Description:
Layout: H1 5-19, E1 24-25, E2 31-39, E3 43-49, E4 52-59, E5 64-73, E6 76-83, E7 86-94, E8 100-107, E9 115-123, E10 130-133, E11 136-139
Amino acid sequence: MRYSIIQLLICSGIILFLSSCKNITSEEDSVLITRNYCTEIGRFDMLFYEDEISGYYVLLPKQSLGAIWGEIEDLVMNGRWIDEDGQGDIIITFNADFTYFTTTYRNDEEPDKWYEDSWHGHIRPDQSQQFIVGDKTYQCE
């Protein structure tokens, strides 16, 4: 199924609204958690609710938005991504305290070609526009 830019913008708007809610507790003690990450190519905000994750990312080099959604089990999310380059499957693997992640993804246009360990994120430590951890420079804005 292909998604239009309008659908992506609507999804991003909903995510932005929900992310402004921060941590929300329902009657069943389910918690909506927002986490702000920075990646090699821009900001990546994620919402965690029970076993589901959704989020949006900024592709700074192209000045465009993308979105992800999926289910998490243990520390691994299996889901989908969409941006101006296309759409496809994505696997996001988090470290134990969710301060770092790495991704493996593929485009529906090339279903046999996986890009492994090719995109990394780190929790945003402060309001700086970029920071360095190890050998990676993370962009935030």
